[in-house]
Amino acid sequence: AAGKRVVEAYDSKAEDVKKNVLLDVANSCGPEILALENAIHNPSLVHEVREAATPVHFRLLQSIGNLPGGVKVVCDMRAHLLYLMKTESDKSIVAALHRLERSAHELLVLWFCQSNMKLERLTWQSPGDILQKVADYEAVHPVQGMMDFKKRVGSYRRCFYFSHEAMPREPLVIVHVALLNEIANNVQSIVECDHLDCAEDECSTAIYYSITSAEPGRVA
């Protein structure tokens, strides 16, 4: 219930409102200090030190992740936290935001383990919304129109993306590969290449020439 209320409060178009929600969570949902001190000074409670030291906002973010679309929300929150930490001049605010960002980071490391990731190939026949997102997210070699993008997923090209089971229609990492009959001297020649004088199955070389992390809040 608390996680849902935070999401509802954070789901605002006003930047200052979103920032205040994150600050409130960061400042009011830290470790349970009294329980931690009690566990530290009581040998019989030593096994409870870790639980008491875990910030309340860690469990709060965990509950948000369990909501429909919640993993994406936590990713967006972490991306926002990273942005605020770079632009905020008040060091005390940055410190508070950093503590919340660490909790988000730790959870995302757990959620985005390899077993939860799926590698898929993108073709011109893939769902339109995913094609559009891959085209929009491409950061290394921006797509120059529909024909350019069609070439990147067509003959002598391969495009793959990683998705997460909780975000199945969100390309998280995008990799573009070129099939060639020799190792290229430079990336530009790969990008500009329109055709080869051999069949695809005769290509001897596969070169990935672009990799984009499409989710700023996701951990590497």
UniProtKB/TrEMBL annotation:
One of its GO terms (molecular function) is malonyl-CoA decarboxylase activity. It comes from the Eukaryota. One of its GO terms (biological process) is acetyl-CoA biosynthetic process. It holds the Pfam family MCD. GO terms for cellular component: mitochondrial matrix; peroxisomal matrix. InterPro entries: Malonyl_CoA_deC (IPR038917), Malonyl_CoA_deC_C (IPR007956), Malonyl_CoA_deC_C_sf (IPR042303), MCD_N (IPR035372), MCD_N_sf (IPR038351). Residues 116-217 form the Malonyl-CoA decarboxylase C-terminal domain. Residues 37-112 form the Malonyl-CoA decarboxylase N-terminal domain. PANTHER family: MALONYL-COA DECARBOXYLASE, MITOCHONDRIAL, PTHR28641. This is Malonyl-CoA decarboxylase.
